[in-house]
Amino acid sequence: MADFADVGLSPTAIREAMDTARSARPGQSSHERSQAVLRLRIVVADDDPDTVRTLRLLLEDEGHDVKSAGNGQAALDAVRDFGADVLLLDIGMPGLNGYEVAQKLRERYGSAKPTLIAITGRDSDSDKSFARSTGFDHYVSKPYEPRKLLALLEERGRP
Question: Which of 87-91, 145-149, 153-157 is most confident?
Answer without folding.
Answer: 87-91
